[in-house]
């Protein structure tokens, strides 16, 4: 009961899929995609537990699920806890969270990606758009810039709302000591 209260959107997603199955839709049940335990493990105190959950959830985008199945799963269930893990103490967990985000965004339809911008862009700006830069791992800074680079052609004018954050991100990339991050920033600009 307490676990469902922490993630009420998971219950609504289960109800959505149950109704879909009752109508005979070809959508898989939510329980086939994600277990409540995996979702709860994302906020566990144990770093290994978080890592296992991220690794397991990392298989979702490449498993061949339809984008219209992944979109509500990302928006209603996974987005908040995964983006929160961008600031995890453990570098491997941050890497897995960033990779899961990039893979999910690549698998979602453009309209769902535009809807998630309000969460993704600020989360990236917090990690690589400030001074000093919060993300100390060079490769993770590069991965975050690659997410931004992928968003630009897909979202176009919808990104204009996030220009202050994007400017912060680009300024941070231009000042980055990692040459590949500088190159990626230039490619975005």
Walk me through what this model shows:
With 189 residues, this protein is an all-alpha fold. It has a single domain (2-188), classed as Leucine-rich Repeat Variant. Helix content is 71%, strand content 0%. The longest helix has 19 residues, at 110-128. It is globular. It starts with a helix and ends with a helix.
What's the layout of helices and strands?
Elements: H1 2-6, H2 8-22, H3 30-33, H4 36-41, H5 47-57, H6 67-84, H7 91-107, H8 110-128, H9 138-155, H10 163-174, H11 179-188
Helix pairs in contact: 5-7, 6-7, 6-8, 7-9, 8-9, 8-10, 9-11, 10-11
What's the total count of β strands? 0
Q: CATH H level: which superfamily?
A: Leucine-rich Repeat Variant
The first-to-last residue Cα distance is 48 Å
- Total DSSP helices: 11
- SSE class: mainly alpha
Task: Give the mean pLDDT.
Answer: 87
Question: What's the gist of this structure?
Answer:
This protein is mostly helical and 189 residues long. The protein has helices at residues 2-6, 8-22, 30-33, 36-41, 47-57, 67-84, 91-107, 110-128, 138-155, 163-174, 179-188.
Distinctive features:
189 residues, globular, single chain, 71% helix, DAAF5, ARM-like, TPR_DAAF5, Leucine-rich Repeat Variant, mainly alpha, Dynein axonemal assembly factor 5 TPR repeats domain-containing protein
